[in-house]
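Dear Dr. H.,

I hope your travels went smoothly. While you were away I took the liberty of generating a structure for the chain from your last submission, since the lab meeting agenda had it listed for discussion. I wanted you to have the full record in hand beforehand rather than looking at slides cold. The sequence, exactly as received, is reproduced here:
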Amino acid sequence: MIAGGHVTLAVTDLGRAARFYLETLGMKLVAQDARTVTLDAGDNLLIVLLSGRREKPALAALGTVMPDAMVGLRAKGQLDEVVAVLETRGIVFVLQDTGPARRAHFRDPDGNDFYLFSAPSP
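The corresponding predicted structure, in token form, is as follows:
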């Protein structure tokens, strides 16, 4: 019924945010202009970065307060291996769920909440 889509995230520094998504997370550039950068996150998901985020007060630790929204990204390969690679690129995972529905939570430089998950085994 639904095949892909896009998420728009407001950011304070468009260049810094684009570098994070391109270099750290390995997404591909689709388009850009003065106010937006559109990235291919795979599996028919686009992430649109929009310049102009308002500053927010410091965020509480994930797990104590539910954020307004989170973006889930499916890991290519084993979750532990993807987490290890991203940690070498400077990502700090703030929470890692255990059990059958494992997820590893992190934030982008603007405090937007993400989690990585592995596709269930067939």
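Two observations you may find useful: The mean pLDDT is 84. Residues 12 and 90 are 19 Å apart (CA to CA).

With kind regards,
E. W.
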